[in-house]
Design brief:
This protein has a four-stranded mixed beta sheet. The chain is α+β, with helices and mostly antiparallel strands. 40% of the residues lie in helices and 17% in strands.
Length: 157
């Protein structure tokens, strides 16, 4: 695990709160764990705003959840707590929301892409995930914008 100085340095370079950088770091390692597992990684497809940020636009908005389309499975949500170098020591640990959506049809085949994980303890080989193709991720965001009124969807498009 990287230390507090690295998180604070990167947060300063990006003009972000250190907690946001710490969450991005945790998201990267959670993705590494999910896609390193043959049973889970081969059956899930990463999607959503975090996918856009981690797979296609390194300097895109930082996101807080992980969205997947698990093929042939029921929908569900869950939370994963983590403790990092700048996490508060009281009041509970920060959490990452997992969204598993099984009712979306993919038009394009998923792509295997490396994620952006610019931290000093990144593995020697890239962290590779199975994700929506960029065109599909963009189309999904346009659909989401038409169906709901969340400012982040407008920003994403």
């Amino acid at each position: 695990m990287i230390g507090k100085p690295e998180i604070i340095r990167i947060a300063g370079q990006l003009n972000l709160n250190p907690h946001i950088v710490e969450k991005d770091y945790a998201l990267g390692w959670l993705l590494a764990g999910i896609f390193a597992n043959e049973k889970i990684g081969d059956s899930c497809v990463f999607k959503g705003g975090t996918c856009l940020k981690k797979c296609f636009f390194e300097t895109y908005r930082f996101s807080e959840d992980l969205d997947f389309n698990p093929r042939g499975r029921k929908n569900c949500q869950g939370m994963i707590s983590y403790r990092g170098p700048v996490s508060p020591t009281t009041g509970g640990w920060p959490r990452i929301k997992l969204d598993l959506t099984a009712d979306e049809r993919l038009v394009l085949p998923p792509v295997r892409v490396p994620i952006f994980h610019p931290y000093s303890d990144a593995p020697d080989g890239d962290i590779i995930v199975q994700a929506y193709a960029y065109e599909e991720a963009f189309g999904e965001k346009v659909r989401a914008l038409a169906e709901r009124t969340r400012p982040r969807d407008l920003y994403d498009v």
